[in-house]
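Tip: read the tokens left to right.
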């Protein structure tokens, strides 16, 4: 359940921050809620939270363990893909607005790192529960 809380905190934090000549301009930050991936992470976090609550209630079915592991995998993959895609955002700014690429920077925000940590934690939770059986 803690991984779900961390994922939701990550959704509210910046996933991406664009700077131009070292300065972030209004609207240059993007949170997880501002894209389709954020909604997918939210659903994965809900699945992980439900699974965690079921574990605490004494349930330990294989489908629960697999669901928590899968939800964590989805969140982690989304975080990794978005982290890898940050550089292309700076290139998009250059091609769209013609701004000199040497002064455009794109930075991974705290939110993506939190989502990655939450995804990994949920995967470990599902795997550890499965390993015990």
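Filled-in amino acids:
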């Amino acid at each position: 359940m803690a991984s779900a809380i961390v994922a939701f905190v990550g959704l509210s934090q910046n996933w991406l921050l664009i700077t131009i000549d070292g300065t972030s301009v209004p609207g240059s930050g993007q949170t997880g809620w501002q894209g389709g991936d954020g909604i997918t992470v939210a659903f994965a976090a809900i699945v992980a939270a439900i699974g965690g609550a079921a574990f605490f209630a004494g349930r330990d079915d294989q489908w629960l363990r697999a669901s928590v592991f899968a939800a964590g995998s989805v969140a982690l993959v989304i975080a990794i893909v978005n982290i890898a895609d940050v550089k292309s955002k700076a290139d998009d700014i250059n091609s769209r607005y013609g701004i000199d690429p040497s002064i455009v920077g794109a930075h991974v925000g705290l939110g993506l790192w939190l989502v990655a940590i939450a995804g990994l934690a949920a995967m470990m939770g599902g795997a550890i529960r499965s390993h015990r059986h």
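The first helix runs from residue 2 to 12. The chain has a mean pLDDT of 90.
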